[in-house]
C-alpha cells in the first residue's frame, strides 16, 4: 500500500477502472444488457443467454438490426438514470481526490467524467484521435478505452469490434503503451472472469518485457473483491500484485481500500 500510495503522490500511477466501479452506483450488469437484447429480438431470456457470451449476442443483435444505435441509446438512458445519486458516492469522490494524471476506463458511461464535474475538477476526455490532438497534459485525462456513448462507432461491444480491439494497434493503444511504461498501474473494478482484463494484462506484460527497462519497471496492482488463489498466482506471473479485499461486501471493500489509499498518499479523507 505504501509503494502504491507513493506512486500516486508522485503522479507516476495510472488508474484502470472497470465495470465494478459503475455497478457500485447501481448500474445494470452485462446480464441486464443481455436481457435487453433478448427482449428486443423476441427471444426467451434464458434461451438467449445460453446461445453465447455478450460479445457474440451483441454481434447477433447488430446483424439483425443493422445498427447499434437504438441499443446505444437505451444503454445511455438506462445507465444515466436520474435515480443515480452520484453526490452520495464516496468511492467516486475518492477517485477524484486521488488525482491520477491519467484514468483509463473500459466503461461506456460518463460517471467518472460526471464525478470530476460534480467535485469541480477540470479534466479532458480522450475517446478518439481528435481528442488526442486536443488533450492537455496539464489536466487529468480520462481515456475511454472501449468507446463512449457520444460516438456509436467508438463503442467496443460486438464480437467484431472486440476482435478489432485485439489488434492492440489503434491510437489509443499506442497512447496506453506510452502511458504505462515506467509507471505503476492500478486496476480497479474488474472481475478476473472478464476476458478483457486478462487479455489486456497479457498484452501489457508482453510490452513491459520488451522494453529496455522491463526488469526494473514499477509494480502494478489489481484490487480484488474476492480471493482466487489460481488467478492471484497468474497475476503475479504477469507482474501484477493482487490486493485482496478484507471485507465481504464488494462496495464496502472498495471504499475501505480507496479510503486507506487516499490517507496513505495524502494524509486526508474524502468523506462526504
Explain what you see:
This protein has 272 residues and is an alpha/beta fold. Helix content is 50%, strand content 11%. It has 14 helices and seven strands. The chain has a seven-stranded parallel beta sheet. Helix 3 runs parallel beside helix 5 (54-65).
Number of strands: 7
Q: Span between N and C termini? A: 23 Å
Number of helices: 14
List unreliable stretches of 5+ residues: none
Q: What's the story with the biggest beta sheet? A: 7 strands, parallel
Cα radius of gyration in angstroms = 18 Å
The percent range for strand residues is 5-15%
H and E string: HEHHHHHHEHEHEHHEHEHEH
Approximate shape? globular
Instruction: Report the average pLDDT across residues.
Output: 87
In which order are the strands of the major sheet placed?
3-4-2-1-5-6-7
Question: What class do helices, strands and sheet pairing give?
Answer: alpha/beta
Helix content: 40-55%
Summarize the structure.
With 272 residues, the chain is an alpha/beta fold.
Topology:
Layout: H1 2-9, E1 13-17, H2 19-23, H3 30-41, H4 45-49, H5 54-65, H6 69-79, H7 90-98, E2 102-105, H8 111-118, E3 124-126, H9 129-134, E4 141-144, H10 159-165, H11 171-180, E5 184-188, H12 195-210, E6 220-224, H13 229-237, E7 240-244, H14 250-266
Parallel strand pairs: 1-2, 1-5, 2-4, 3-4, 5-6, 6-7
Helix pairs in contact: 1-14, 3-5, 7-14
Amino acid at each position: 500500500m505504501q509503494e502504491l500510495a507513493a506512486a500516486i503522490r508522485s503522479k507516476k500511477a495510472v488508474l484502470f477502472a472497470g465495470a465494478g466501479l459503475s455497478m457500485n452506483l447501481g448500474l445494470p450488469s452485462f446480464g441486464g444488457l443481455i436481457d435487453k437484447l433478448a427482449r428486443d429480438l423476441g427471444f426467451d431470456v434464458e434461451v438467449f443467454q445460453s446461445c453465447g457470451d455478450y460479445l457474440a449476442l451483441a454481434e447477433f443483435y447488430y446483424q439483425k438490426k443493422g445498427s447499434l444505435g437504438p441499443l446505444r441509446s437505451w444503454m445511455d438512458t438506462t445507465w444515466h438514470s436520474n435515480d443515480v445519486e452520484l453526490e452520495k458516492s464516496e468511492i467516486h469522490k475518492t477517485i477524484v481526490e486521488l488525482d491520477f494524471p491519467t484514468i483509463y476506463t473500459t466503461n461506456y458511461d460518463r460517471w467518472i467524467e460526471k464525478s470530476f464535474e460534480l467535485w469541480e475538477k477540470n479534466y479532458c476526455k480522450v475517446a478518439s484521435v481528435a481528442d488526442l490532438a486536443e488533450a492537455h497534459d496539464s489536466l487529468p485525462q480520462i481515456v475511454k478505452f472501449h468507446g463512449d456513448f457520444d460516438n456509436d462507432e467508438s463503442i467496443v461491444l460486438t464480437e467484431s469490434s472486440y476482435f478489432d480491439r485485439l489488434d492492440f494497434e489503434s491510437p489509443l493503444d499506442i497512447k496506453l503503451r506510452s502511458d504505462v511504461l515506467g509507471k505503476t498501474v492500478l486496476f480497479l473494478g474488474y472481475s478476473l472472469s472478464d476476458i478483457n482484463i486478462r487479455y489486456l494484462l497479457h498484452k501489457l506484460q508482453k510490452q513491459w518485457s520488451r522494453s529496455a527497462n522491463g526488469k526494473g519497471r514499477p509494480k502494478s496492482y489489481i484490487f480484488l473483491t474476492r480471493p482466487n488463489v489460481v488467478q492471484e498466482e497468474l497475476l503475479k506471473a504477469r507482474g501484477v500484485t493482487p490486493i485482496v479485499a478484507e471485507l465481504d461486501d464488494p462496495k464496502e471493500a472498495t471504499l475501505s481500500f480507496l479510503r486507506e489509499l487516499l490517507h496513505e498518499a495524502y494524509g486526508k479523507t474524502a468523506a462526504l
